C-alpha cells in the first residue's frame, strides 16, 4: 500500500528547513495541494509537537508527523520528504526523513503503518532512503 | 500483563510501537498484551505498564504508574532490552 500511496507528486527532496515547523509545513504541501488534508491539519500536527514533545520522531533521523482524523483529513494519504541537512526537533532529535501521515479514521491507515514499521526496521533500507536523490531511488526500495 | 503504548494522538506512533512491543513480548516469552492509546485517555486507563517516548512518559509518571521510555519505536532489540530490564525488576 505504501508503494501505491507514495506517488511521484507525494515525494519531495529539499536542502533543509529553517526549523521543524517549516519542515512539517513543506512536507505536508503535496497532501494539501491534492486535497487530502486541510490547512488546519498542518497546524494541528505542529501544535501536537508543541504540546506533547517530539514523539513523532520514530527513530533517529525519521519522523512521522500526524494529527487526528477530525483535525482536517479528507482522504487517507501519506507524503514523504527527504532533507539533505537534518532538521532538529530538540538537542537530541534530528530528522532527515519525514513521512506525513493523514489518517481518515481510526483503522484504515493501520496496514500502512505496519508497512512503514517494517520498512524502518530494515537498517539498510533506511540508510538507502537517506541517500535517495530522486523518486526512482525511493520507489525501488518499497 | 497489560501494557499501554501511548502517544499524543493514540493512532500513529503508539500503534507502531504497540506492534513492536507485542513482537518483543512474544519473542521474550512474556505473557502480555500491548494496546495503544492517546495520552489523555491513558491518564485514566489502568495498566501494568505504560510505554512510549520519554517526553510522553514524563507526562504520565505520577502516582504509582509504571512507565517505560523508548527512543527508537521500531528497534526491536532496544524494545526487548528495556522490557527485559523493566519487567524483571518488580
Automatic annotation (TrEMBL), chain A:
UniProt KW Transmembrane keyword: no
GO biological process: phosphoenolpyruvate-dependent sugar phosphotransferase system
Primary location recorded for the protein, binned into one broad class: cytoplasm
Gene Ontology molecular function: kinase activity
Span of domain PTS EIIA type-2: 4-142
A GO-annotated cellular component: cytoplasm
UniProt cross-references to Gene3D superfamilies, sorted A to Z: Mannitol-specific EII, Chain A (3.40.930.10)
This protein's UniProt keywords: Cytoplasm, Kinase, Phosphoprotein, Phosphotransferase system, Transferase, Transport
Compartments, as annotated in UniProt: Cytoplasm
Protein role: The phosphoenolpyruvate-dependent sugar phosphotransferase system (sugar PTS), a major carbohydrate active transport system, catalyzes the phosphorylation of incoming sugar substrates concomitantly with their translocation across the cell membrane. The enzyme II UlaABC PTS system is involved in ascorbate transport.
Protein name as it appears in the record: Ascorbate-specific PTS system EIIA component
Organism from which the protein derives: Peribacillus deserti
UniProtKB/TrEMBL annotation, chain B:
Any one biological process term the GO annotation gives: phosphoenolpyruvate-dependent sugar phosphotransferase system
Record keywords, A-Z: Transferase
Molecular-function annotations in GO: protein-N(PI)-phosphohistidine-sugar phosphotransferase activity
PROSITE patterns: PTS_EIIB_TYPE_2
UniProt xrefs under SUPFAM superfamilies: PTS system IIB component-like (SSF52794)
Domain named PTS EIIB type-2: residues: 1-90
Identification of the protein by name: PTS lactose transporter subunit IIB
Source organism phylogeny: Bacteria, Bacillati, Bacillota, Bacilli, Bacillales
Amino acid at each position: 500500500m505504501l508503494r501505491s500511496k507514495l506517488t511521484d507528486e507525494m515525494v519531495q527532496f529539499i536542502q533543509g528547513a529553517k526549523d521543524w515547523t517549516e519542515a512539517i509545513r513543506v512536507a505536508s504541501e503535496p497532501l494539501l495541494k491534492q486535497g487530502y488534508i486541510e490547512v488546519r491539519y498542518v497546524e494541528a500536527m505542529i501544535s501536537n509537537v508543541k504540546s506533547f514533545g517530539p514523539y513523532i520522531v520514530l527513530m533517529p533521523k525519521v519522523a512521522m508527523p500526524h494529527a487526528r482524523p477530525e483535525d482536517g483529513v479528507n482522504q487517507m494519504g501519506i507524503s514523504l520528504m527527504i532533507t539533505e541537512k537534518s532538521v532538529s526537533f530538540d538537542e537530541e532529535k534530528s530528522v532527515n526523513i519525514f513521512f506525513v501521515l493523514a489518517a481518515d479514521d481510526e483503522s484504515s491507515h493501520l496496514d500502512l503503518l505496519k508497512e512503514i514499521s517494517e520498512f524502518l526496521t530494515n537498517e539498510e533500507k533506511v540508510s538507502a532512503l537517506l541517500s535517495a536523490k530522486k523518486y526512482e531511488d525511493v520507489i525501488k526500495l518499497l | 500483563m497489560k501494557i499501554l503504548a501511548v502517544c499524543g494522538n493514540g493512532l500513529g506512533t503508539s500503534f507502531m510501537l504497540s506492534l513492536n512491543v507485542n513482537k518483543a513480548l512474544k519473542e521474550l516469552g512474556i505473557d502480555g498484551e500491548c494496546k495503544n492509546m492517546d495520552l489523555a485517555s491513558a491518564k485514566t486507563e489502568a495498566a501494568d505498564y505504560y510505554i512510549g517516548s520519554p517526553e510522553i512518559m514524563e507526562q504520565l509518571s505520577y502516582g504509582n504508574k509504571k512507565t517505560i521510555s523508548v527512543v527508537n519505536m521500531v528497534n526491536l532489540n532496544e524494545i526487548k532490552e528495556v522490557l527485559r530490564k523493566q519487567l524483571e525488576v518488580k
